[in-house]
Amino acid sequence: SVFLAMFFIGFAFKITDEYSRVWLISWVSLVVVTLSAVRVYMGHLVRKMAASGQLSRKVIVMGMGREAKRLLSRLEQTAFPWIHVVGVFDTAIDDEPSGAHFSSGSVDDLLAYARHNQVDDIIIALPGLSEEHLRVLVDRLEVLPVNITLSLDLIGVPVDRNAVSAYGRLPVVNMKMRPLEGWLQVVKFLEDRILGLIIFTLISPVMAIIAVLIKLESPGPVFFKQDRYGFNNRLIKVYKFRTMYSDQTDANAEKLATRNDPRITRLGRFLRRTSLDELPQFINVLKGDMSIVGPRPHALKASAAGRLYDEVVDNYAKRHRVKPGITGWAQVMGWRGETDTEEKILKRVEYDLDYIEHWSLSFDLKIILQTIFGGFSGRNAF
Fold first, then answer.
1. What percent of the chain has pLDDT over 90?
2. 109 alpha carbon, distance to own chain's centre
3. Which fold has domain 57-176?
């Protein structure tokens, strides 16, 4: 800015004759006109895509009272066509209409709906909620990968300005934001696709050799496919090299592998100890089901000390607010292997949530390097 200002002063007052003032004025005018035209065109394109449904933010309003009706009315009148209200829910089922909208159900119904449909934002418009009730409600909704905001119409006290944002032109208070939003989501996507493709290309010869050795050692398929919980608690097919005898594989992980497990082949022990059995999950990364770094995906019946993980850990599903990963913060910190005690799964989830809370590209690269230089093997891997 200072540099350009000096040139403008020099040209305006003829301090130097080395540059043409006419050329500068023409260039600046062309830039201003071009940028203005691009801005107008992009605005038109965004509105056109929003009107066709290609670009939109799916909104759920939580509440059925007067405040909710007022919020819905203002959302319908907003000049932002990409905002679409897809449902209205309440803490209890209520058939009273809110404008053109009717209650879609309770909090449980909202959670079920968001598991199978795109939802970007939840706006709470429930007056009279106590601090404790609001905390409990947000805690329940926090398992979803969405932004949770509170309508400012409900608040009669000042709030920190950093917690306030505009939804369209409506002021809202940010209660819980999705872990990866905006450019962070783009960075994570590029990391997985570009770095994932590079790594997959480099490890392909190793994977081919392992596939041949598996076929030579025991009959059965090369890959073992298992349903596991992925992003937003949805089921995904996770690929691994088969490490057990084909007639003794456990699709639901009802019995987790233990040290000296007789179901595991001799080659399988080596693959598990070195984590080479996880290499096919780069296929999941390229498919978009997984990330290179993230909380490890768990099998449906995985348990700790005889209890399912979600029974042991409160709000266990919070770890599903991001895609699962091939490696993770918990794994490089030593929390991997058999979960024969509840403490082990509690510590894993603690590290998973810490990773989600503090995600950054440099954090991912740190975990990848720790995995390469020390995380592939260990005393807890078998």
1. 24
2. 22
3. Rossmann fold (3.40.50)
